[in-house]
Design goal:
Two copies of one chain form a homodimer.
Chain A: H1 12-32, H2 38-44, H3 51-63, E1 67-68, E2 77-78, H4 80-90, H5 98-109, H6 114-129, E3 132-136, E4 145-152, E5 157-164, E6 169-175, H7 182-196, H8 201-213, H9 220-234, E7 242-245, H10 247-253, H11 262-269, H12 271-281, E8 287-291, E9 303-310, E10 319-326, H13 331-348
Antiparallel strand pairs in A: 1-2, 3-7, 3-10, 4-5, 5-6, 8-9, 9-10
Helix pairs in contact in A: 1-3, 1-4, 2-3, 5-6, 5-13, 6-13, 7-8, 8-9
The structure holds a DNA duplex (30 and 30 nucleotides).
Amino acid sequence: MPRTFSWTEVNAVSERRRLDVLRAIVEDYVRTREPVGSRILTERHKLGVSPATVRNDMAALEEAGLIAQPHTSAGRVPTDKGYRLFVDQLAEVRPLTVPQKRAIETFLSEAVDLDDVVARAGRLIAQLTGHVAVVQYPSLRRSGLRHLELVPTGDNRVLVVVITDTGRVEQRFLDVPGTLDDWTLGELRARFNAAAAGRRLTELGSAFSSLADAVPEEHRALVTAVAEVVTAALSEESEERILLTGQANLARSGMGFEQGLRPVLEALEEQVVLLGLLTEMTDEAGVAVSIGHENRVAGLSETSVVTAGYGSSDGDNVAILSSIGPTRMDYPGTIAAVRAVARYLSRVLPG
Amino acid sequence: MPRTFSWTEVNAVSERRRLDVLRAIVEDYVRTREPVGSRILTERHKLGVSPATVRNDMAALEEAGLIAQPHTSAGRVPTDKGYRLFVDQLAEVRPLTVPQKRAIETFLSEAVDLDDVVARAGRLIAQLTGHVAVVQYPSLRRSGLRHLELVPTGDNRVLVVVITDTGRVEQRFLDVPGTLDDWTLGELRARFNAAAAGRRLTELGSAFSSLADAVPEEHRALVTAVAEVVTAALSEESEERILLTGQANLARSGMGFEQGLRPVLEALEEQVVLLGLLTEMTDEAGVAVSIGHENRVAGLSETSVVTAGYGSSDGDNVAILSSIGPTRMDYPGTIAAVRAVARYLSRVLPG
DNA sequence: GATTGGCACTCGGTCGGTGAGAGTGCTGGA
DNA sequence: TCCAGCACTCTCACCGACCGAGTGCCAATC
């Protein structure tokens, strides 16, 4: 056999064992956090071969870029590519236990409002996976307008409150020209609600413009201003908010980071970038995993991100939730937890 | 002079110099993060005396519990008590620069809604102080009811949305018995608003009970349920929410923590405990500082907390904002930043 | 041809010792 | 009251040696 290794040259039984070795390496390394050598591997897993044979397999795996050794004469460690193969082909799904599922269900259903649902989902993910949890607040897409409230807040400002029929509430400050007495404001509020309540976002434009025509000259500017604010608030453009929790978990497992956790924490605080990453990687349905350098975000090259969409049962996701931890993570467990929480979240959420 | 030191035994000039030495130690240690010795002290500060004299003063300061040495033949480090004295008597206020103030003002005034104001305040604190920022969302105290909305969310659930006249919005899920048609819901909504709009929290009880009497038998249970939810949501009891940001700053300066940052991060995630600490320490007016072990919270014994109330100009605070960093922090700078942000926040906020 | 035992080799981590440096406390004198 | 000098202590960085884990290769075996 030539020195350069190629998967096509080995027979089926050899290839199977090599993948077994890879799986064993991943599992052991995840558990012990230490490079794993050939001897220990044969002791802890029933591979049915001697350390020497395992060494040969390891050499092949290393040649293929699936494992690496931190330095000569240390054990092997999976590479990003190795984790990828493990996740795609080797990992066995490990569903949550019934008590766990029940705990998720009850904990989520005890939520007192929408923000609380998100907060609880975050805490669940953080606790179940032992990593950082990121939850995007449900987006406003495809919702209609339920009620529009104008609240004066003194000094020429009005607070515009928008309630959608999915129960989402958005608020926006609005500077108004000149003063505005309560009566006029009440009148405008009534008109707005008459014109817009029940309409979908897409229909709001025309509803508002016809309202602007029907309103006395001196309030026309205000009406268009409110209309702008409302459509802006409801448009998908409006920057989405995310919730971060479980950073303390990083400190626990995070001693293993080469670069320390500073870059990781910093990357997590770049909410826009982070949200972009999550959105980009999240699949249509199911759970998506991004490993190590697959994350294009600078500080996350030593972490893996597990995301799932949630929010609707018909596969058209409203928002994302994810778990971020070291590449050396328990993938089956993390995937199961993220999937389960996403599923229950979709069930609990209105709409 | 006897070996045991007592402040009353020294004359005025000596005492003054000793405090100068303490100030110099605090300032140097904050800057360099290294224990400071007598020689360096005389080199970097114009104390006008020799290292030997400084050593005597140091011995006295140590006797008084204001400084300590990590080990024999290392320089001195301020104790919590030393920082306390520094903050109370020695620190000179260092107001922010005009550009800084202007930056705060414009950054806050660009906020698009209430949540955004809080988020921006947090980012400001985190950036200006270089520590972790904690901002409590404005509380509901002393506000009246502006509007009450009932949104059906399918499967026997109603979302109750409460808008106060300070612009705060609270939402609560409510399980309703049986089904509820849209018309009835609309009717109830109108009645609720007629009965409760404009009322203060304290007046709501009677308003709701008389409403319950005036409503047909079959909806009485629903009305009382809604009334309960609303008063619960508005009562101060309702757990307050806080925003945390800038944890990455901990990793930067945090290498100095004896115990590592895990306990700190964990303490920060105990939101209830954290909020209790902040509430307890926050003074009526102005900025409060809690140093090291003065924080009764376990994980925060190596950190100092600087808080200020914000939200109203008449000294009756609505909520709290604070900066949490290592005890070895720049107290004058941190205090100035917290105070400034709190002040502008009070100005920007409605109410 | 795959597998295995044996063996030499490499390299990181640990341990003990050592020297330099920093800082202190103390003492005696101005 | 201050200060210069001195002996002492303790940490840290460095060095060398050693140990053990793990590897790669080779020849023998199934």
